Amino acid sequence: MEAAAPAPALEPAKAIKAIDRKSVHQICSGQVVLNLGTAVKELVENSLDAGATNVDIKLKDYGAELIEVSDNGSGVEEENFEGLTLKHYTSKIQDFSDLIHVETFGFRGEALSSLCALSDVTIFTCHKSAKVGTRLVFDHNGKITQKTPYPRQQGTTVSVQQLFYTLPVRHKEFQRNIKKEYAKMVQILQAYCIVSKGVRINCTNQVGQGKKSSVVSTTGSPNLKENIGAVFGQKQLQSLIPFVQLPPNETVCEEYGLDTTDMPQNFYSITGFVSRCDHGVGRSATDRQFFFINQRPCDPAKVAKLVNEIYHLYNKHQYPFIVLNICVDSECVDINVTPDKRQILLQEEKLLLAILKTSLIEMFGSDVNKLNVNQKLLDIAGGINAKCESSEGNRIMTLARLRESFSLHQMTESNFQSPKKVKRQHSSPRQLPSFDTTLSPESEKDNTDSGFCSTSAESDVGYNMPEAGSCISSERVANSPEEEFCDSKEELQNECLETAGQSEKSLECDVQFLGTVHELNRVNDWNNPNKLSQVASSSSPSKKCFKSEADDLKADTCPEEKNTKNYVASVDALVEVKKKTVSLEFSMKVLAEKVKKVIRQQQKRTETRNYRRFKAKISPGENKVAEDELRKEISKEMFAKMEIIGQFNLGFIIAKLNSDLFIIDQHATDEKYNFEMLQQHTVLQGQKLIVPQNLNLTAVNETVLIENLEIFRKNGFDFVINENAPVTQRVKLLSLPTSKNWTFGPQDIDEMIFMLSDCPGVMCRPSRVRQMFASRACRKSVMIGTALNIQEMRKLVTHMGEIEHPWNCPHGRPTMRHIASLDLISPE
């Protein structure tokens, strides 16, 4: 007997070993210094911690080539040279318990060590006790490779060359996005310029061999407001009001679940400035919002969200400029949450939010420039009340009644001119349930350019028929599906009575018959004859439709009623069936072959059947999900391959791609195509100003504008550039774009600068130019109610494949939705 083969030996588990020290250093360093902003921030913090009153930052090629931070701080003593760039070496704390009382920016001992691992670092320093300075060159492990005397005054200079070049992938990405990184770095630096009182901070940038340009500069003022003026100009100060702290009121305390009796007093002390809530005073983005905790710049997400939400109660379309310094006991805050120390944890955070909410509401609410609309309405109501009492006795006019009398429903009813128009309006074919469309009446198509759009992304009303000139009340659309069906059924029956004998009769009765089928489909219990008979009797339109006809016509025109009744009555009737025996030929061989054939067909069908690619409902709440699915599954080339099935309701195109059916809004899709064409090809004409206008730009914004002059010119803005003028005064506005009654100004320039800071060199338009193009595109597009032939529908669908974003119109209406997959309905 042969011996059994030995079982294969199990492969021994790999031993757990430490990562080599060099790799650990590189891995961890990449998580400490994330970008250009972090690198500059760490070096500036070191200078401020050293007691510097003068900090100079020099950048070459936006920081990609060189970052150099020089200060007049205390300098580094010779015995600390070795530990200066070693991991976790710090003079700020000795053990973990010291974290509670740390008052410096840095304390982890990681910044210089990480910069050594990611770049070439050289440090020049001179301590106040030293006779001459020293130049130190470090390797990537933070070890000193050169140490030579170097003459300089007291202080330290850190030079960082070729940031991230030790990580090739990140270095390439860093260089590709350098201008975006630079813009973010400037915003971080602005925070330190604002909060550092008595410290002069100056930052310059040099591109290639060109002239140095100032990025940001402060004068070393001991005053927070003067620092804001130095960074953002005196014009910004004119829009600011000081933050006035108030204790949280009872309503706000109840909202945040705070106990007013057990609330700590004087826990927080908040100072700073916020822009007024007048329209035009705020910003188009959140680019000037700075939050500090104990003078430390940070990103408190909940605080920022609350401030913006309250500001939007008073100024819906803008964001505030805000500088807030929150002082709290150091034992109640944890600053060691993330390596960049921007995320901070607070005790009693709800109390802070309650204080901010109460204070901001009071500040904005008591603004002398605001008009108390409610009081005005009450005054008007009082005046009307006096007249009503004099003419109609003791009738009371309240504010609620005043609102009711001006409600959309009442005004819509009164706008109709005749009963016939009312009937036509209500009996017009409805839009698909929950398909979020707002359609423009054809009567709005004119040659004037009013600056107002004929459609709204937020409205959710029915069709605007050209004859009525008004839209269906939004209250109707808000009804449940059952109410909508009942309302439309009654209206269709009335219309059928009125137009009996006319050519429209057969069409409307068909619509009613479809309604009956819809009602039958809604019955869940098909085995219950009572429910079936109820549906058949209540939803059958035949009786009411031809009620006014002669009796002899009833039998001829309403056969479906009789058939339905006979069917319903016989659902559960007992039927006697005569049984009959029939002999069948049977063969196992034939049966086996048939079973194999069926199995093969099922396997083939399973392999070829597509998965369910479109799951989103046709509903306003699922627009984002639907657009993501379409973007994923439909490429630009597919639009040209779609088969046009036909036009639905004179407003929608039904198209088929393989086994998928789609519904396309003819007006919305044409509007989006026209809008993108206007965006790409329109060059706005500028109108010259009598006198060139100063813009009061910051140094970095001025640089962004100069580098993107061509994009501004395509938008109709023209400037005169004086290279010899002081920084922040080099650019003057020469001409502004105008188009009929649309006018533009410096706010649009600020908005474009913000967009170009994030995406340099990319063509963009101010939001008001987009509104103008959207308005024009709407008026020149195919209207709802226009009959289209196959060629015209094909043209609209093909255009969808020629634009960047075909999924919704400029006003937010969806252009296309998936209806059904024929494979799932019928696998055969």
UniProtKB/TrEMBL annotation:
Polar residues composition-biased segments: 428-441, 449-458
Pfam family, one: HATPase_c_3
Superkingdom as given in the UniProt entry: Eukaryota
Domain MutL C-terminal dimerisation: 644-788
UniProt subcellular location: Nucleus
Region (Disordered), start-end ranges: 413-460
Principal subcellular localisation of the protein: nucleus
Keywords per UniProt: ATP-binding, DNA damage, Endonuclease, Hydrolase, Nuclease, Nucleotide-binding, Nucleus
GO cellular component, one term: MutLalpha complex
Boundaries of every DNA mismatch repair protein S5 domain copy: 228-365
GO molecular function, one term: mismatched DNA binding
Gene Ontology terms describing biological process: mismatch repair; somatic hypermutation of immunoglobulin genes
Family statement: Belongs to the DNA mismatch repair MutL/HexB family.
Protein name according to UniProt: Mismatch repair endonuclease PMS2
Native organism: Apteryx owenii
Origin organism lineage: Eukaryota, Metazoa, Chordata, Craniata, Vertebrata
